[in-house]
Amino acid sequence: YIDEQMIRAKAEGFLGPEDHEAKARVALDSNVGVFSLSRTKSNLLMWAHYTEDFSGFVVGFDDKHPFFEAEDLRDRPRPVAYSSTRRTYPIHREHDPRECLFEKPLEWAYEEEMRVARFLPEKPTKFSEMGQALHLFEVPGEAISEIIVGHKAELEMRESVMDTVDSWNLDCELYTALPSGERYEVEFRAF
After folding, report:
1. Cα–Cα dist 60/94, whole Å
2. How wide is the angle at C-alpha 71 spanned by C-alphas 68 and 75, nearest 5°?
3. Phi, psi at 99, each rounded to 5°
4. 2: which residues sit within 8 A by CB, 6+ positions away?
5. What is the DSSP string of the chain?
6. Share of the chain above pLDDT 70, in %
7. Cα distance between residue 136 and residue 125, in whole Å
8. Which of 6, 27, 87, 178 is most buried, by the most CB atoms less than 10 A from its CB?
């Protein structure tokens, strides 16, 4: 759908070379959802940035669960390529427009990111408090292998995690993450 739309727009003169990439990104942004994952749970920078300095939590998944084994190989988790140069992507029927979503600058390599990029359903799953359309993909509880709560998480968050594990009957490990006192690394302790 995106490919045909872009090809038609270019043929009709709506896309010049200068705004071609911008319009392609807008088309992707409104038609594709990205589920970002990491191959590591122990990176200090990740804990500092994404959990607000150990005050949030991380959900670990079983990458062998059928949820991650989609029939279409393009719908499975794929590694992000890190590079110092931007690649260009042709627009034609044989090219998957999601391909550009699997690269980032070298500076982000510490994330060891995997992504799933799936086309969104036409109607949003729900709306945010600000009225923004949200497209959520349901991840089966059996795909969750662990939940790791940062050591600075408030009691309310810890209790909420425990309540969710109980009410969803999740069979997963629970840990607390904290920086090591001896090394520059993250330690995990049973919750």
Report:
1. 34
2. 55
3. -55, -40
4. 24, 27, 28, 31, 97
5. -HHHHHHHHHHTT---TTTHHHHHHHHHHHHEEEEEEES-S--HHHHHHHTTTTTSEEEEE-TTSGGG--SSGGGS-EEPEEESS------STTS-GGGGGGEEEGGGGGG-EEEEEEEPPSS-SEE-TT--EE---PPPGGGEEEEEEETT--HHHHHHHHHHHHHTT---EEEEEEE-SSSSSEEEEE-
6. 83
7. 6
8. 6
Q: 73, 96 in Cβ contact below 8 A?
A: no
**C-alpha angle 137-138-139 in degrees, rounded to nearest 5:** 115
Residues β-bridged to residue 134: 126
pLDDT tens for residues 3-42?
444 444 444 444 455 555 666 667 777 788 888 999 999 9
Model pTM score:
0.77
Q: Tokens representing 147?
A: 């939940």
136 Cβ contact list (under 8 Å, min separation 6)? 125, 126
Q: Smallest Cα–Cα separation from 115: which of 78, 61, 158?
A: 78
Residue 91's pLDDT band (boundaries 50, 70, 90)? low
What length does the chain have? Answer: 191
CA distance 144 to 150: 17
